[in-house]
Design brief:
Number of strands: 0
Number of domains: 1
Distance between the termini: 76 Å
Largest sheet: none
Strand content: under 5%
Order of helices and strands: HHH
Structural class: mainly alpha
Helix content: over 70%
Number of helices: 3
Length: 77
């Protein structure tokens, strides 16, 4: 069964081959960057059913709640 190139690089890096260690580190950094970008996308528009991302939707809910509280306090006066 063929091994993924990253597995080959990891094996050689752990065996002490410095060139493969650098290459493996770069592959790991690239993988981490991809995961970070994916998670950041979910904070933005992503594939949401609304035109708002998670942060925008949260801010809108906070604003709406604040307005509801303010309106309730005005009626009590």
């Amino acid at each position: 069964m063929a091994k993924h190139i990253q597995d080959v690089f990891e094996d050689k890096a752990r065996a002490g081959d410095g060139a493969y260690a650098v290459a493996f580190a770069l592959l790991e950094l690239a993988r981490a960057q991809e995961r970070t970008a994916t998670q950041l996308k979910h904070l933005g528009l992503a594939d949401a059913a609304t035109p708002y991302g998670a942060i925008e939707a949260l801010v809108m809910q906070i604003k709406e709640t604040g307005e509801t509280i303010a309106n309730a306090l005005e009626r009590d006066d």
